[in-house]
Amino acid sequence: MSWGINPVYAAGRLAGHGSPYLAMHADDPTDWRDWGPAALAEARRQNRLLLVSIGYFACHWCHVMQRESYRDPEVARLLNDHYIPVKVDRELNSALDAALQAFSERTRGRAGWPLNVFVTPEGYPLFAMQYAPRDEFLRIASALAARWRTGSAELEAAARAAAMVEPAPPLPADLPAAFVKRALEEADFLRGGFGATAKFPQVPQLAALLDLRARHPDLAGFLRLTLDQMAGRGLFDQVAGGFFRYTVDPDWQQPHFEKMLYDNAQLAALYLRASGFLGEPRYRAVAERTLDFVLAQMAEADGYAASLSALDSRGVEGGAYLWPAERIRALLGEADWQLVHRLWALDRAAEYEAGYLPFAHGLPTPEEALAQQTALAKLAGDRAGRAIPRDGKVLAGWNGLLLAALAESGRELPRHAQAAAALYGKVRDRLWTGRSLRKGLAAAAVLTGAELEDYAYVAWGVWHYALASGDAQARRLAVQIQREAWRRFHRAGEFHLEARRLVVAQADAWEEGHTYAPAPLLIELGLASGEADLRRGARAALARAMKMTRGDVFWRAGLVRLSLAAPALAPGLIPVPGGASGAASRPAP
Question: What is the distance, to the nearest Å, from the Cα of residue 568 to the centroid of all Cα atoms in its chain?
Fold first, then answer.
C-alpha cells in the first residue's frame, strides 16, 4: 500500500478521534491505526512488524517528528508498505507507554517521547528509539524491514530473548534509610533537585523526603532549596502561574514549555504539604497560585484539560511565553526596564529564538520584588492575546489528582473549596457511570479504557474531598471506586496496570516516575478506609510488596512512604527500624 493510492488515507482512520493528538495525525500520509487487538491481528495476518509510535499533544518533539518523518511521502510509503503503523496517545494508554518506556530504558539506556517501538506480530518489542531526524529514522526503518523480509524468525527469536529480564536486586530491609541514601546520591545540593543535566520535578521522591524530615532534619535545607528553585526560576511561569514539564538545563532556567495537568496538580499538593511541614507560608502561596492558574487557564465543560502545548499557535516552541527585549522595554517603560534589564539578565543573549523568559536570575530585594510584580502584570496583559493550543480532553485520573489538591487547599481557601465541590460533581456525574470509570471525555466523545491509575487517582481525589468537606456520599463513592479497582486490576496477589496486556513487556504498579504509582495510593486508601475488606486486602498486598518488590529504591518512593505511614494506619503491619516511626504521610480519618 503506498501513499498515492491508499484509500484509507483519504478517509483518515484517526479523523474525529477524541484524542487531539491522534486526530492531528489523521491527515498524515502514514496510514496510522489506533492501538488495540485489531492492529496485532492485522500484523499477524500480513506477517509484518508493527511500528508503535507513542506521543502526546503537548510534546514539542512529537510535533517535530510528525513534520519531518510521518508526513514525508517516502517515509510514509515505507511504513505503509512494510509495517502496521500504530499511533498511540500515551495519556490514553499509560500502561502500554510505561511498559514500552521500560523496554526502551532497559535496552537503549534512555526513554522519553516520541517513543517509536518496533513490535513483532506476537507482541514482543524488538527495537526502540525516541526522536530521530528524518534520514536516520528512514535508514533504521528500511533496514529493519529488509531484515524482517529475509529473517523474520531470527528477529522474532531476538525479541523473545529480549523479553527475558534478569530479576532486579531485592529492596533493602530498611527502606527509609536506603531511600534517603539513594536520594542524597542523586541530589544536587547547589541547585536543588536530582541529577546534573535536565531537571524534572520529582514529586513522589520529594514527598517521601518530606515525610522523612523528622528522622533526618538535615533534609530540610535540601527540600527548601529545591522548592525555592522550582518555584522561583524558569520551571514556574512567573507571568501567569503554573509549572512547565521540566527544564533542559540543571539550573531550572530553560523549560520545555508544555504545561501538564498532572504536574500542576501534584506540585500544588506538594507545596501545600511543604508549607505546613517546613513552616514556610510562601509555599502555600505557590500552591494557591498554581491552582488558580489551572482554574483560569485549563477549565473545560466537564473538568480540566490535559495540557497546554509547548508550541504557540504559530508552531514556535515556547512562543507564547517569550518576549524580545525590545518588546519588553516598550511594554514596561524606562523605569521598570532598568530594573528588569538586570534582574532578568536581559543583557545576555536570548536563549530562545523568540526571546526571553522572564524570571529573576538572582534573589531580588523586597523593593525589587514589588516592582517586578508590576512588570510581570504588564507582560501578563500583553500575553492575554496570545493563543496556546491545548489538549482539551478531560482525563479522569488527572482530574482526580487535581480534586485532591483543591480539596486540601480548600480547607483554608473558600474559592478552592468551591472549585473542589464543582469538580467532584463532574467526576461523580460525568466520569463515573455508577459501575465503572470512563477514561475521560473529549468534546462529545466518551473515552473508554480506564486503567489502574485512573481508578487510584480518582479514588484518591474523591477521598480527600470527602475528608475535607465531610461529604458522606463522597466517602461512599471513594470506597466504591476502590473496590472496583481491586476487582478489575488485582489478580493473583498483584496489581496490573491495565485490564488486558497486548505486548510482552510491562511496568509494575509500584514504580514512581513522573506521577505517583497507583498501587501505594490504593494501599494507603484501603488502610485508612475503615472498611474491613479493603483493609484486609491492603494489608495482604502491602506485606507481599514488602517481600516481593525489587529494583532501585529511589523509584519506590510510594513504598517508602507506606513503610512510614502504615504503622499509624495499621499497627503491627510493618516492623519499624529503631522502634519509632516517622509521621504518617496523612492521618487516618
Answer: 30
